[in-house]
Structure formats: structure tokens, C-alpha cells
Amino acid sequence: MTDRINNQKGITLIEILVALALSLIILAGVMHIFLNNKQTYRVQEAFARIQESGRFAMQFITSDLRMAGYAGCGSKISTPNNIANYYPAPPATKDNIADEVSMFTGSGIEGFEYTNLPVPLSGAVSLTTANVVAGSDIVRIKRAASTGARLTGNMTADNANIQLDGTTALGLFEENDYMFISDCEKADIFVANNVSASAGKITIAHSNAVNLDNKLSKAYQEDAEVYKFVNTTYYVGSNTAGEPALFRRTLLNAGALSEEELVDGIEDLQLLYGEDTDTDGAPNVYVDSVSVTNWENIVAVRVELQVRSIEDNLAKTMTAYGDKRLRRTFTTSIAIRNRAI
Known about the structure:
Elements: H1 2-7, H2 13-66, E1 81-82, E2 109-112, E3 119-120, E4 126-127, E5 138-153, E6 162-165, H3 166-169, E7 178-182, E8 187-191, E9 194-198, E10 201-205, E11 225-238, E12 244-251, E13 257-264, E14 266-275, E15 285-287, E16 298-308, E17 327-335
Parallel strand pairs: 1-8
Antiparallel strand pairs: 2-5, 3-4, 5-6, 5-11, 6-10, 7-8, 7-11, 9-10, 11-12, 12-13, 14-15, 14-16, 16-17
């Protein structure tokens, strides 16, 4: 028994070194596989995020562009009667000129290049180079938003207060709202100087205290609908984290503006406008905003969005932008439903 114990030998230093070397090789291989898998996961996740951001950004823009210039069932009402004269707020500064913020210029769509900045959004607020990423385009969309609120009374005179069903219209409108009334023949844009509810009805006044006149273009009947007036501007700006993002500014009650960050990672927005030059309802040429000869003839818009990954160090080589972010360009063409035949 003693001899057997004495004959046992330990592990030599060379064997330990060989074992350590083999372990390091195996560990290096495992780490290489792990790092490659992690990088592959990061790239795939970034591509999925880019795809999602591009899809959401396109959805926001296209849903508004399709409805640009919507003025109720009369889709060819390109110049609604505009009596709104709220901003700047009257009476001290009332200028007897219809508000630019509620003008249906270009049948509800206006495009701007970065070089056109500053772009006025209201009487007091403008988009400037401090708001917009260099080289990116800007588009402003004006339209009516359906509410389902139809007239129920006071339909004999063009200056009568508008009466709506209280069940349908309750809570939809406020004093100093920009509003839209339309049937299949005419449309008017005005400011509500008073909104009241009583006896199951909503009554909306449109006096000349906040309008050029208290008269609409006609005495509307039961087939007319009262809409919300929508004025929305899309552009690419920088968010609080310094990342480029798609932004939207919307006209609110009493001429105020809201700013929303919609989707981050949107690096560039480029727009081409399809102009119908032969009145057949189809675009003959796509041009930038500077080259549009008549905004009334714009029947389609081609949108191009460049989306980048939020994370850096994903691409194998340095890009032309001086980073290793992933990028993808999304392109689509939208027919403006209220202009195309």
C-alpha cells in the first residue's frame, strides 16, 4: 500500500501550461462566438427598429397627405370662404385680413425647402434653422377633420348661429376654435367666438368680433357638416437627446401651437410634388417645392425618409456620415384623394 502511494506522480508544470493554453484557446473561441452573436443581434435589432421607425413615420405623414385639402363632400372646393380673423387676437390688433394660418393655400398643401426658412406657422411662431435639421424639407397640410356633427336648426340665414345636436357634438368644440362648415357645394372657415349647450343643442356663434364678417357664404342646411379645422406641419428636428426625429406642429385652440416628437431616428425628409399639367387628374411631373408652378395642380406627393439606427458601431466600416450607424431609405408616393380624379 505504501509503495503504491509513493509511485503516484503529480501533474507537471508543462502539463498545467498546456492545459491552460488549451483552455485559453477554447475560451477565446467561445468569446469570439459570443461577441459575433451579440453583434449580429445588435445589427438585427437595429434593422428591426429602423424598419419600425420608417413604417410609423410614413404612416403619420401619408395619412395626413392623403387628406390634404379635404373640405367635406365637395372634394374640388379648393378655396373655401375664409372669414377667420382671430390671430393675433382681436379686438386691439384686428387687421381685417383673413388669418394666414387658416388659408387653404395650394388646396391644403404647401411645401418648403430648408433654404425657405423661416417658415411662419402662426402670427407669432415660425420654424427656423434652429428647429429643422439642415437640408430637410418641410410640408404643411390643411384640411377638415370629420366630426359627424350636422346642423339641426337656425338654417334660414347666413349670419345665424350654428345649431348642432347636443348628443353628437357635445364636447367637440370650444370657444376660439378654428372651424369648418361644408356641404357638397360650398365651404367656410371661421372662428367660434362662443360655444354653448342648452336644451339638447350645441350653439356656435361666429360674430365679427373674431371674424371678418358674421356672414357665411350661404345659409347651410341639414346636409352640411361642421368639422374641426386641422393645420399640421411636418419636419425633421433634433430631440432633447440630440437625435434627429420626425416632428409635427399642429394649430390648436385660439391660435396656439403644439409640438410633438413622433418618431426618433428620422434623419432626413425629402418631398417631390406631382403636378397635373393637363388637368387629367394624374401627375405629369414630380418637382421640388421651389419648382411647383401652381399648388392647385398638385395631385400627388413622393415622400423619401432616411432613417438611421440610434446605436453607433454597427456597420463594419465608417460611413460617409463619419459614424458606423445603419441607415435605410424609405420611399412612397401618395395620391391626394381630394385632388385626383
